[in-house]
Amino acid sequence: MYAVIMAGGKGARFWPRSRNRLPKHLLDIVSEQTIIQETIARIAPLVPPEKTLIVTGAGHAGELMRQLPEIPQANILIEPVGRNTAPCIGLAAVAIRKAVGDDVMIVLPSDHKIADEPTFCRILQAAAGTAECGNHLVTVGIEPTGPETGYGYIEKGERRMTVAGEDVFAVQSIREKPNREQARALLNQGGFFWNSGMFIWKASAVLTAMAAYLPDIHAGLLEIEAALGTADQDEVIARIYGGFRSISIDYGIMEKAANTLLVPGDFGWSDVGSWDALWEVSPRDDQGNAVRSGRGLIAIDSRNNLVYSPQKLVSLVGVEDVIVVETEDALLICRRGESQAVKQVVDTLEEQGRQDLL
Amino acid sequence: MYAVIMAGGKGARFWPRSRNRLPKHLLDIVSEQTIIQETIARIAPLVPPEKTLIVTGAGHAGELMRQLPEIPQANILIEPVGRNTAPCIGLAAVAIRKAVGDDVMIVLPSDHKIADEPTFCRILQAAAGTAECGNHLVTVGIEPTGPETGYGYIEKGERRMTVAGEDVFAVQSIREKPNREQARALLNQGGFFWNSGMFIWKASAVLTAMAAYLPDIHAGLLEIEAALGTADQDEVIARIYGGFRSISIDYGIMEKAANTLLVPGDFGWSDVGSWDALWEVSPRDDQGNAVRSGRGLIAIDSRNNLVYSPQKLVSLVGVEDVIVVETEDALLICRRGESQAVKQVVDTLEEQGRQDLL
């Protein structure tokens, strides 16, 4: 069984910590480990490093190898450009087919947080068992805890089987990110799960689906597959991959295929998509303050703040609901609940050509 | 005419910028110059550097000389310990008497901000003229702009004279810092001025008053005067000054003497006593943000903040009424209006023995 970690993200929403050269998954933002180190450690009980592939951009491969010395260098697949998840997964699938003929691949985003790792592994094992016994395209749906608007939703259909004690359902429908009202309606209706971006299938199964629903990309992937391991490999990947359109696996395959299945999971999942989401999943003191400081904390009458200041003593006086992030060259001060606007700061820096701060 | 600058302050309220080794008056907190550099430059039209004395603690003399190379080293009078303003002024008075017999001395705090310097000089000249023609103890009272509770108040009595175009009044009463209600009542009643801590008198006049109202301190000052310029000077000052009680000139002399006079002044004065007061006197952008940043500012929907971050780009997102101050080893985040509690942070650091941060 293979693990395929999709590590193409930029993570502008964690500016000023995330930068072009250092996207979210390479940051120690949730714990002392970086997010991708946690992701790899989490899957390790199921898949050894030799069978763990990471798909990433050329600019991040060096740092990634530095953070993950246990992963063989040949397992780092370089995307010459980002083309969303469908080409990324296709690249990994042909690499697996070339290496071992066929095998189950567990496809995981590189930058999520999971609180209950034993349950996570149990659910993935059930999903892998499901994938193994057919050409199913299996995804994990997260039991929603509220009407979140930041996630896509998957509607479960009828129960199809039980694998390793877990019920497996047909996928009835897939919904793009809803607005608040729509999200409330989905929760009231019941049977909807958050789209976790985790997929489990045989390499052959996803490539068959690509041939059917993304034939242009499938044709390109065959060319790449033929070149893998030859002297032309890098040149072919650069040429073919650059010509791919940008398309997600959800839109390109999952919304169209008939053989999709859903395994529900409830293991404290978050995609940690913003500073606000980070506050939600961070350990907090009695006053609700999540503070990482190099030299201690003195808090007076202050509640529900998120502060990152790695070298300094942090002192809070009478402040509530503020996010403060300090790096060597930038200082962000943001009201809690407004952190989606951090993207605007990054856009402004791009307009201003402030490469030093991006 | 002499100027005597009282530079004994600690300025814990500007932590984390102010430190034991670097009190408020040695900081460039209001402008590009340090506060004491501004103070010296402001008085320079009236008093040359050779006649400007600075009374300060031993720990600050080095930095003070570095910042004020134009002041002769002999003009820096070292207090072995801080004993409030009465001994400080007495020390300067005997130094002047020893040097030139007698002269008018303009006594100024080292750490105030004055917007209208020409008017300031005009008022001081009138006060000096008043002091010169008698043994009056003259103080400058500031036209109040609101019911401030952070200042003492002086009540004017009947008009006594007009000097250089300025009316000079008897001092009717002196009030300690009032509460908000009392301050409102004083303003409604009228005839009250803020106590600026500026005093103008002949050295002989203040020493006569000390002999009458602070005879113990006066006796010690005579011993110091005898030792000035001898080999014993430092030893005598250390011994005598250490034995002085701590007492303010307001409480020790001004509240008791009968020959006190008041010159009202209105020249944009502030004692800049806190981060909140600094926001009040700082230049602010259209959105009310006073930001000093090393690499620029990006503000989105943010108002009325004070931010100091000398090395970094500052980005504000959706925040109002927050004070953020970043130094090499500390980060303060404080709600505007709460900055008097910064003193509590310093007290906590003292309790914890965090000498590195004090």
Question: Helices, strands, pairings?
Answer:
The structure is a homodimer of 358-residue chains.
Chain A: E1 2-7, H1 35-43, E2 52-57, H2 58-67, E3 76-79, H3 85-100, E4 104-109, E5 113-114, H4 117-132, E6 137-142, E7 153-163, E8 166-175, H5 180-189, E9 192-202, H6 203-213, H7 215-227, H8 233-243, H9 249-254, E10 260-265, E11 269-270, H10 275-281, E12 290-293, E13 297-300, E14 306-309, E15 313-317, E16 322-326, E17 330-335, H11 342-351
Parallel strand pairs in A: 1-2, 1-4, 2-3, 6-10, 12-14, 13-15, 14-16
Antiparallel strand pairs in A: 4-9, 5-11, 6-9, 7-8, 7-9, 8-10, 16-17
Helix pairs in contact in A: 3-6, 3-7, 6-7, 7-8
Overview of the structural elements:
The structure is a homodimer of 358-residue chains. The first copy, chain A, is an alpha/beta fold. Chain A folds into 2 domains: 2-270, Spore Coat Polysaccharide Biosynthesis Protein SpsA, Chain A; 275-357, no CATH class. The first copy, chain A, has helices at 35-43, 58-67, 85-100, 117-132, 180-189, 203-213, 215-227, 233-243, 249-254, 275-281, 342-351, and strands spanning 2-7, 52-57, 76-79, 104-109, 113-114, 137-142, 153-163, 166-175, 192-202, 260-265, 269-270, 290-293, 297-300, 306-309, 313-317, 322-326, 330-335. In chain A, the strands form 4 sheets. Chain A has a 5-stranded mixed beta barrel with strand order 6-9-7-8-10. A 4-stranded mixed beta sheet of chain A has the order 12-14-16-17, with helices on one face. Chain A has a two-stranded antiparallel sheet with strand order 5-11. In chain A, helix 1 links the parallel strand 1 (2-7) and strand 2 (52-57). In chain A, helix 3 packs across helix 7 (215-227) and helix 7 runs antiparallel to helix 8. The mean pLDDT of chain A is 95. At the A-B interface, strand 15, strand 16, strand 17 and helix 11 of A face strand 15, strand 16, strand 17 and helix 11 of B.
